[in-house]
Inverse folding.
């Protein structure tokens, strides 16, 4: 079976000035199979966020190869990258990033707005997902009336809305207390058991312990699995 | 279709959420659009009024007025036209189907059974009603016979009728004009205000012979003469002919000014356009400036808004929004706001124009045209000034947007 993500000698260089550039990723080889639960660990500045952006197609490698679901990402147009994100990736961010003026339901529905073919009954599906995380009674609330843990659960529902293969979580518990954090991690574990591929970026070993595989990154290279 | 509805509903939510921005954008556009609305309404009003007047004046008519241009300018009207001039024109111009001499006396005291009123009396021939396309609604016009024997008969205007008679039927009754008893033979149709705001419905129309002999003590000179021609297409030619004809009759040597003036309906249009022109220029400048300012206010507020909403843009991009989705969203917001501004501006303009009409008696006419022009302009501004911030939002890199 083909791996879901396959990176070969991926490098990423950022230009800072006229002739000053920094190589953040210095040759990453990474293979992620469907159904894995992976933690990417590293200190800040290690390149773990850049790696996450590349996996999530928010950015493209400077060189190397990256196949996502069998498709070469390098050289794709911006529109194609958007479409890849829309269908294959569900993002969860440290600071939730919910739209403040939209309701919980509208936030969860956000990815469906940008789908090429809109499946019917999207609202029913959103309601079902919200029920899964116990927020069915909060559907018409604005985010500012929810606790941090609840907001992150809404964000998780949004990530699941288009039924992507990969859930990509960047420090998903960074702004939560440890009890709420473990609730969120348990939800991610449950999703993984149901077949979702989960990739968590963190610097917290407790969070990483939920994962089946931990990848350590330092100075732009993978040092240890 | 679904996509457009989505974009619009997303834009509407943002418009409602960002109230202060929305208020300023809408308000500044509204000011500009209201100015434009007033311009369009005034222009249309002026033209409509002009054409209405031409209709009344008669597109085939010219008006010859006693006195040179200079003497009119200093408001000292000397009488130079005569009844004989009128007869001569009637006999010499084959296509002049109506030649109607007129003389008027202002503020004549009239009364009926103790009801007193002061009205202008117009002396004219029995063709008055036909000549001004002004129907007699009750009774009938006076006759040629009345004219010949300088009979004491009159047509009265609608207002004079109400002032003197109340609900009583005036036809056949005698009124006192100064000290002369005059029989009312007919009532003129209600006409409303003239272009100068003057009242037309208070006049009393009598045979010119009666007016000259009994009110003016005048045997020869008249004030005005109206000539209508069958061949409209030769009007300019006839006008020039009339001028030569009258100069000759009055014995004016070459090089000296006419002692009369000739007006045609063209002159009315010119006059009205000049009257409203200055207002249009003034309001036009105000309108254009305020629309440009409104555009920049919009652009600036949207730039600010894009900066404030980088996280939102980032999250939309990360869930799969394409550049054009972001572009369309921000453009839709801009257009929604300017549309609201346009509609509000139209309402302001409507109110302002009505006020102007009341205060300065400007001809105002509202039509869909004024509304559509305002709306179209507001859309143009929305797109023109919204495009730059919207494309900045669209071109934010997803990773930078998410980093906040």
């Amino acid at each position: 079976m083909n791996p879901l993500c396959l990176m070969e000698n991926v490098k990423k260089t950022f230009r800072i000035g006229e002739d000053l550039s920094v190589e953040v990723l210095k040759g990453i080889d990474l293979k992620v199979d469907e159904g894995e639960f992976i933690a990417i660990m590293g200190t800040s500045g290690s390149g773990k966020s850049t790696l996450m952006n590349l996996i999530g197609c928010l950015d493209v490698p400077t060189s190397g190869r990256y196949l996502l679901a069998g498709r070469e990402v390098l050289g794709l147009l911006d529109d194609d990258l958007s479409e890849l994100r829309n269908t294959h990736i569900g993002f969860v961010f440290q600071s939730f990033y919910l739209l403040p003026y939209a309701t919980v339901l509208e936030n969860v529905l956000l990815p469906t707005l940008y789908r090429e073919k809109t499946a019917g009954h999207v609202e029913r599906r959103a309601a079902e997902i919200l029920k899964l995380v116990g927020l069915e009674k909060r559907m018409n609330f604005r985010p500012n009336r929810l606790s941090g843990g609840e907001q992150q659960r809404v964000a998780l529902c949004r990530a699941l809305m288009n039924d992507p293969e990969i859930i990509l979580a960047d420090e998903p518990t960074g702004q939560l207390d440890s009890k709420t954090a473990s609730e969120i991690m348990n939800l991610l574990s449950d999703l993984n058991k149901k077949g979702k591929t989960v990739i968590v970026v963190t610097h917290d070993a407790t969070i990483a312990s939920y994962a089946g595989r931990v990848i350590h990154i330092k100075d732009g290279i993978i040092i240890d699995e | 279709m679904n996509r457009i509805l989505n974009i619009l509903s997303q834009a509407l939510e943002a418009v409602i959420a960002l109230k202060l921005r929305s208020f300023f954008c809408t308000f500044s556009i509204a000011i500009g659009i209201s100015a434009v609305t007033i311009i369009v309404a005034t222009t249309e009003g002026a033209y409509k009024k002009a054409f209405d007047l031409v209709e009344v004046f008669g597109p085939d008519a010219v008006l010859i007025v006693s006195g040179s241009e200079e003497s009119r300018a200093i408001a000292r009207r000397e009488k130079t036209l005569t009844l004989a001039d009128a007869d001569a024109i009637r006999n010499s111009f084959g296509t002049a189907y109506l030649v109607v001499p007129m003389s008027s006396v202002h503020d004549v005291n009239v009364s009926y059974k103790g009801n007193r009123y002061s009205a202008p009396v117009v002396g004219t021939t029995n063709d008055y009603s036909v000549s001004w396309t002004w129907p007699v609604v009750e009774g009938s016009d006076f006759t040629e016979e009345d004219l010949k024997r300088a009979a004491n008969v009159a047509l009265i205007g609608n207002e004079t009728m109400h002032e003197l008679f109340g609900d009583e039927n005036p036809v056949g009754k005698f009124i006192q004009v100064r000290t002369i008893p005059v029989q009312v033979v007919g009532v003129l149709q209600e006409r409303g205000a003239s272009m100068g705001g003057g009242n037309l419905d208070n006049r009393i129309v009598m045979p010119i012979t009666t007016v000259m002999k009994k009110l003016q003590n005048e045997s020869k000179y008249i004030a005005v003469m109206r000539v209508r021609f069958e061949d409209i297409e030769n009007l300019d030619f006839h006008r020039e002919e009339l001028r030569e004809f009258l100069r000759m009759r009055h014995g004016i040597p070459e090089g000296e000014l006419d002692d009369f003036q000739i007006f045609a309906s063209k002159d009315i249009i010119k006059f009205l356009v000049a009257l409203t022109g200055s207002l249009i220029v003034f309001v036009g400048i105000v309108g254009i400036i305020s629309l440009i300012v409104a555009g920049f206010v919009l652009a600036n507020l949207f730039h600010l808004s894009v900066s404030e909403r980088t996280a939102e843009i980032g999250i939309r991009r990360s869930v799969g929004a394409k550049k054009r989705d972001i572009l369309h969203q921000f453009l839709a917001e801009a257009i929604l706001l300017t549309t609201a501004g346009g509609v509000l501006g139209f309402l302001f303009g409507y109110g302002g124009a009505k006020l102007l009409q009341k205060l300065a008696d400007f001809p105002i006419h509202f039509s869909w045209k004024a509304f559509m022009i305002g709306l179209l302009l507001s859309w143009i501004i929305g797109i023109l000034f919204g495009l730059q911030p919207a494309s900045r939002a669209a071109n934010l890199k997803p990773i930078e947007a998410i980093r906040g």
